[in-house]
Amino acid sequence: MIQCEQCEFYATSPSGEPILRCDPFANIKEAHCLTKWQIYRLTKLTEAYEATVELQRRLAPLQEKMMRHLEHEIDEYDESERWKLGYDDDDDDEDDEGPGVF
To answer: Which domain holds residue 70?
Structure first.
């Protein structure tokens, strides 16, 4: 089995991380290369997911604050527009008969 370090599709980044330039559809040399490539990709995917989760964790308080502010603004708007719609809580009892009742 060939080691990745011995392959021409392998490189090392300046930070020391491996860079696999293998293409599983074109230039895989051995069956084990595909397994290594899949593990490498899953590791990168997991790192990206964890970074996304961390970003969401940091943004959660801000999002919650924004939602409370929007709900407050919507409630204020509904209250200010209430008179246009003709809804009065006190008048509801008088209009219980509704149309069509004689």
So the answer is: 4-85
